[in-house]
Structure formats: C-alpha cells, structure tokens
Amino acid sequence: MTLESMQSAQNAGALPLVAATEGAESKAKPAAEPTPPPDLEGALVLEGHYAGKMDLAADIDTVGHYLNSHRGWFTRCAHPMQVEPISDHGYALVVGHFSMMGYEVEPKVGLYLSPLDHQVYRIDTMPVPGYVPPGYDVDFHAVLRLKDGLAAPPPATALTQIDWDLSLAVKIHMPRMLNSVPRSLLKTSGDRLLNQVVRQVSKRLTRKVQEDFHQSHSLPLPESCRGHHFWSNWGRRSGGDAHDRQA
Predict the structure, then answer these.
(1) What is the pTM of this model?
(2) End-to-end CA distance of the chain
(3) How far apart, in whole angstroms, are the C-alpha atoms of residue 4 and residue 164?
(4) In 174-195, which positions are buried (b, 16+ CB within 10 angstroms) versus exposed (e)?
(5) In which band, very low, low, confident or very high, does the pLDDT at 173 lie, cut at 50, 70 and 90?
(6) Among the listed residues 64, 58, 65, the one whose alpha carbon sits nearest the alpha carbon of residue 157
(7) What contacts 223, CB < 8 A, 6 or more positions away?
(8) pLDDT, mean of residues 7-14
(9) Whether the Cβ atoms of residue 194 and residue 38 lie closer than 8 Å to each other
C-alpha cells in the first residue's frame, strides 16, 4: 500500500463548464448523459471517526466572521489540494492521488460549508454538478464547535478554542483485479490508509488555518497555538475509545 504525496496537486479548477450559444441548438450535438455510477451495494466501506482541536488568539465573534468568509481562507488553506467553488457555500475538492494494492483513485468530493449557527460550524458532503464519482461514494460530516478559551496567552487578549469532530465513510466498488484479495485485508488496509490521509490533511489544514487567521488579522501566533491535537477511531463505529492522539 502506498500513499503518494499530495504536494503534486495544483490549486486549479477541475470542473468542465459547458456554455450554450443562443440559436446554435440545432448545430450543437446533444450533451452526453453522465455515466451512471456503479452499483455500490455490497461495496467495500472504509470509515473513520476523528476529533481534534485548535486555538485561535481572538474572540468568538472575530473567529466566526473569519469562518463565514470561507471564499478566502478555504481556498488558501486547502492548497495544494484542488479547490473549485460550485455554489455560494459549496466547493469541489480533489484530495489527491492514492493507491491501495494497485487500485488507484483520485477522489473528488463536494463540500458545503454552512454559516455559523450558535457557535457551531458544519461541513457536509454535497453533489458536484455534472460529476459522477467513478466507483466510489464519499460521506463527510464535520462539526466545529467554538468556545471561549480558558486563558489568552500574552500578547493575545482573547482566545477561542475550536473542538472539531469528523465522521467519514468511503464506499468503493472494488475492481475485479482485487476479487481474489481477502475482504478483511482490503478493509484493514483501506481503513489504515483513510486514517493516514485524514491525519496528514488535518495536520496541514490546522497549521495553515492558524497561520492564515493570525496573519490576516495582524496577530502573532502564540506558542500554545502551534500544537496539532488529533484523535482517531478509524475503522470502528462511534462509541469506542478514541486513540492515535498526535500533538
């Protein structure tokens, strides 16, 4: 099992746009129907449940306004992953290129960033217009909860702590080339790869958001904000003890 570096991804649009010309309908070929997705009944399901936290040296209102202004920070901080706006609150995100036992995939997922509501910020999957995932389906649900920090590290005068949790499931229609591989081995390898990807993306995204927030508000980045706190319960249903903490 290999995990190729995400650093090769470019921050460029990946969605095809089709423009219709008035009066040219008779000359234009009819648009091809999207290829229907494969039947994912009985597909291999990779899943994980994750949690983490990060601190931002400002009050909740300032942090909330920053999160709601996602047209700026989300594109900047997601790089080198490819990001393309698809609605006022939605983005198509290409995570990277991955390989598991010779099966390669470059997952693209639509994410909807809901406005902050009662100090809760949600990110959920949404359809990407005109795109049919080739043999996989992603179910992504993240919740960020904002609360006042216990003490603001000098020179900051306020501190907001963001506790986040993520429930992620990926259904994969496995190719015939992997039919001879035991299902349990595919499941274990896939869950481990999913955990590795989420941990890597989480670490980079946390660092970038903290740096971007403090730089955009002309605030110094306190030492207490430099840690990466991550818990995972990959491959298990909710309710088990989380493990794999990284700071």
Answers:
(1) 0.74
(2) 26
(3) 26
(4) beeebeeeeeeebeeebbbbbb
(5) confident
(6) 58
(7) 153
(8) 33
(9) no
